[in-house]
Amino acid sequence: MQTISLPVARRTALAAQGFAEPRPATTPTRRHLAKVLSRVQLLQLDSVNVAVRAHYMPVFSRLGAYEPALVDEAAWSHSARRPRLLVESWAHEASLLPVEDWPLLRSGAKRDGWWRHYTRDIDTVPGLLEDVLAVVEEHGPISAGGIEKMLESEVVGRGPGAWWERSVVKKACEYLFGLGRLSTGTRQSFERRYDLTERVVPPEILARQVSVAEGARGLIDRSARALGIATETDLRDYYRLGPDVTRQAVGELVEAGTLEPVGVRGWRGVAYRHQDARTPRTVTGRALLCPFDPLIWERGRTERLFGFRYRIEIYVPEAKRVHGYYVFPFLLDGALSARVDLKSDRVAGVLRVPGAFAEPEVDSARVAAELAGELKQMASWLGLDRVEVGERGDLAAALRREVG
After folding, report:
1. SS3 of residue 396 by DSSP
2. What contacts 371, CB < 8 A, 6 or more positions away?
3. What's the predicted TM-score (pTM) here?
4. Consecutive H or E run containing 31
5. By CB neighbour count within 10 A (0-12 exposed, 13-18 middle, 19+ buried), where does 235 fall?
6. pLDDT digits over 56-77, tens only?
7. Pairing relation of β-strands 86-90 and 3-4?
């Protein structure tokens, strides 16, 4: 078994994620978006909007300034000329992923999700799931709140007062979404509008039957393509698969030659390199990474690859936060060189940087200059007028001077 150095593994991972290629010289198009998706395989969704929605940022990190409508149209609209590219499902977490991957997720390879815990509440309202599906069939795409109103108007007289806890309808919607019976037809102000899956996923894809083993192989293959080089637990985490199906799929893909076992100096256990992975001699360029970027979302892997300990501190009391509320690592020439706490003040038109922190042994002057340039580009992309840097962090003063 070949053994490779950590820098080689790092460059392999960065290339797999699309960071070894320059950003487009022209305005990014649907073709550029499709290329990003072929690298990362999925975009994680998250409700936090402190700086920018999580599913938009990884595309900016790889392409630079682009029109967010590219993602919106790919995910939440469909026409004969521009068919839907993406569908929502539970993958890593709630995610956007290529429509053609839908059968892999429905194969049974993925572990049952948290929505299974809703059955006890749902069962307290007989017929609720059928009622929800009927409303969506007639009125969808429709929000959970809209479904509640429709049901309220149709069930007057079933009993005194409210006949259910309002949250049960939302739980029913999420349960049906988790099962694949409902999907997201569109979103308005980021609120999900549920629709029947057969009106969202093309019939030829919906009809494709995939075994558990085939689904696991397909998902692990995509994990390995996205990661370049990874441990078995890394591969498992990308789509949140179970350990048994993952180990079987990895073994079958090794036997087929799709995955190659390798050793990485400093890593415990075996790693696996995808047959199509490439390792550039150098990686240059810069990018801000949101907390849910697929390059860094698995914190243990981030620390193994980059020596960068990263924790999201949203749920940490303010007085106990080390770096800030919503912190973006800064990638520069293949290394995570700094981190910045970011907030979009849309009323004032300001991208605020309450804190900026350099990693040990970096050229702080150069990092500050490159980071200032990237922050200005991000602010412009978000329609903000300027960047303002606060006082926290050892990089703040130098970054403030560079921002001007």
Report:
1. helix
2. 286, 330, 332, 338, 340, 356, 395, 399, 402
3. 0.94
4. helix 30-40
5. buried
6. 999 999 999 999 999 999 999 9
7. unpaired
